[in-house]
Amino acid sequence: MSTVLELKNVNKAFGGVQAVHDMSFVINRGELAGLIGPNGAGKTTIFNLITGVYDVTSGDIEFKGNNINKLKTFQVISLGIARTFQNLRLFAASSVLENVMTAAQQHYKYNFFEAVSHLGRWKSKESATRKESMELLERVGLADRADQAAGTLPYGLQRRLEIARAISLKPELLLLDEPAAGMNAEEVEQLNHLITDIHKDFNLTILLIEHHMDMVMEICPHIVCMNFGAKIAEGTPEEIQSHPDVLKAYLGEEE
Ligand SMILES: Nc1ncnc2c1ncn2[C@@H]1O[C@H](COP(=O)(O)OP(=O)(O)OP(=O)(O)O)[C@@H](O)[C@H]1O
């Protein structure tokens, strides 16, 4: 089993707030792993550190054995890491298809003249991207909405589109930040199927942040639980569910 992502004693402080404290974990190739913890535990900060939005205060983040501490977001993406966001970041006025194509096109190289004239490589790449993007929309069940403005999709489908956009970047590692946020039980169930399907079909390694505990327990065989920036437990759903520190952390949240 080869390591895709490794955090080694990672710390991140925002002024006096220690958002991430001495965090270490390993995600192996092909895993579908969960990152859980109460509100403010530091989960999204971990994603922001991995994707170069923030620099670590100390510690190391490695992707396939290479240190990515100092990389900018676009460099992290080009290495094969894509993410979705807690707050949707779609182009609301653009069509569903255009949203996916815009992301997919980041892969392609053409010169200024070709881009302006829409000739040469631009033209052939554009039609290839359109075809690939439509296939992807079919895969995630959005093909019949291809021409609709993204902002007019029901919320659950907008989240689906965000996942399609991330996959269009052809990542090896996909980071999903609360993909089920705001969904009803039926939508969560459908999302469960989508995530397990794309995990398999696109040979992805996935790290998933989610507050829907039943979802994480059902689809993630490996779970890291954090609280106040630090890892408090790691293991299988059974181990996590019965871990005293996890129970205490979530009980505290309900008080
Ligand atoms: N840019 C920032 N500047 C200052 N503090 C920040 C910043 N980003 C996050 N924090 C703080 O770091 C801590 C961890 O926040 P983070 O958003 O990572 O938690 P989370 O586990 O993702 O929470 P939630 O589940 O509510 O989304 C919080 O105390 C938060 O206020």
TrEMBL record:
Source organism of this protein record: Cloacibacillus porcorum
An example Gene Ontology molecular-function term: ATP hydrolysis activity
PROSITE patterns (UniProt xref): ABC_TRANSPORTER_2 (PS50893)
Record's GO cellular component terms: plasma membrane
InterPro entries reported in the protein's UniProt record: AAA+_ATPase (IPR003593), ABC_AA/LPS_Transport (IPR051120), ABC_transporter-like_ATP-bd (IPR003439), BCA_ABC_TP_C (IPR032823), P-loop_NTPase (IPR027417)
Gene name linked to the record: livG
Alphabetic keyword roster: ATP-binding, Nucleotide-binding, Transport
SMART domains, per database record: AAA (SM00382)
GO biological process: D-alanine transmembrane transport; L-alanine transport; L-isoleucine import across plasma membrane; L-valine import across plasma membrane
The organism's place on the tree of life at top rank: Bacteria
Protein name stated in the entry: High-affinity branched-chain amino acid ABC transporter ATP-binding protein LivG
